[in-house]
Amino acid sequence: MLSAGSFVVLMALVGLGGQGLGDPLTGPHPPLPADQDLFWGSDQYDFAVVLGASGLECFWHFAHQGEHFYLTFMVQWVTGVGNDRHLSVTVNSPQGLLVSKIDEASGQIKFIAEETGFYQMCFSNFHNRFGSMQVFLNFGVYYEGFADKQKQKEEEKKEKEEVKKDLNNTLSSIEEASHRLENYVFHMFRHYNFGRMRRGADHYLLQSNSKYVTWWSAVQSVVIIMAGYLQLYFLKRLFNTKPSPEAPEKPCC
């Protein structure tokens, strides 16, 4: 069962995912006409979520058929007794079929959507029954064939308008170059987000190691002091003197 926070995030993702389609969608299988000109957009989301002991969080994201769906995740910190950094991640299609599954501390999932609808992403912390973890997520969709589709439309238009051939060629090249640049920038931000995940995980690891070294040094210092005190105490007991009944002026140990 999803928590209240997960439900709010889910509603936000559903609302943002359907902005390019006009009216809000009421089901995972919207009735899209075959001749409808779909919006091939690119969107992405990145945020962190805390999974409790044996916790499960699921999110849904809308994707059109032919779009590239990607998901990147990384465990930033883990708490509890006998903690395990492994995270079980599954992605299901709108029909409920398993698309991909990973059981690691970090990973990436990429595939081309074969059907239009809401794809389910579930994150399970069943490895840790007595501890929680924080996971950074970055996911979204993009369509690399957008430039090719626009180029095809421009070619059909050039056949009908021979007079504007040079102008259309120039505009088509500019548009194709702008879409290619936009695609490169989009992928650059994807790699930047993954690097930010790794830096965050390293930061929490350094904090954890610092606390561990501090406490362990304090414990060792206490043990060393206690051992020295006990050694001194027993050595002092060995040299306790008492007068001898035969020779009172000669002490004995």
UniProtKB/TrEMBL annotation:
Keywords: Coiled coil, Endoplasmic reticulum, Membrane, Signal, Transmembrane, Transmembrane helix. Its main location: endoplasmic reticulum. It comes from Esox lucius (Northern pike). Residues 56-141 form the GOLD domain. InterPro entries: Emp24-like, GOLD_dom, GOLD_dom_sf. GO terms for cellular component: endoplasmic reticulum membrane; endoplasmic reticulum-Golgi intermediate compartment membrane; Golgi apparatus. It is a single-pass type I membrane protein. It is found in: Endoplasmic reticulum membrane; Endoplasmic reticulum-Golgi intermediate compartment membrane; Golgi apparatus, cis-Golgi network membrane; Membrane. Residues 1-22 form the signal peptide. This is GOLD domain-containing protein. It comes from the Eukaryota. Belongs to the EMP24/GP25L family. Residues 146-180 form a coiled coil. The chain crosses the membrane at residues 215-235.
